[in-house]
Amino acid sequence: MESYENAAGYELNRTEFVKEGADWYLRVYVDKVEEDGYGTMGTDDCEAISRYLSEKLDEADPIKQNYYLEVSSPGMDRPLLKDKDFERFMGSEIEIRLYKAVDGKKFYTGKLTGYENGTVTITNEKGKEISLQRSDAAKINLAVVF
Fold it and tell me: Which of 60, 72, 53 lies closest to 4 in space, CA to CA?
């Protein structure tokens, strides 16, 4: 995927290989990269990447069982997984779900205002700054705000 990313302006966000019912799915989440930042993935983008990956996967045949290939954008509620995700979405509303409660809560929301050395800092709706360890989070994702 690396050469395709560079040539076509796409960036791999993440992959999943999961079993749902009797079927296996290889899900590939991709961002569109443009000169001035990130663009919007459309169905044409997903289709082009799917065709490319399907051809390459058929050639290499790394997965011996039957599966469905799905290509998609990471979505509006995308998970923040990499350090660069935190940099990219600084100032955005995020949701943090913790493994164990901190100050009696396992769920926090707020504007992402800092990220350093694995510490995520958000500012909640009351203006209070809250710092949490990324390693304590089960999931951190963008909040969908309407």
Answer: 53
**What CATH class does 83-142 carry?**
mainly beta
* Fold for the domain defined by 2-72: GMP Synthetase; Chain A, domain 3 (3.30.300)
User: Do the beta carbons of residue 12 and residue 5 sit within 8 Å?
Assistant: yes
**pLDDT band at residue 8, thresholds of 50, 70 and 90?**
low
Say whether 83 sits in a helix, a strand or coil: helix
Task: Order across the sheet with 129-133: list the strands.
Answer: 129-133, 119-123, 105-116, 93-102, 137-142
The 3-state DSSP class for residue 34 equals strand
Question: How many angstroms separate the CA atoms of 83 and 99, rounded?
Answer: 20
Domain edges within the chain: 2-72, 83-142
If phi > 0 it is left, if psi is from -120 to 50 it is alpha, else beta; for residue 28 that is beta
Q: What pLDDT digit, counting tens, does each position of 105-136 carry?
A: 999 999 999 999 999 999 999 999 999 999 99
Write down the pTM of the prediction.
0.82
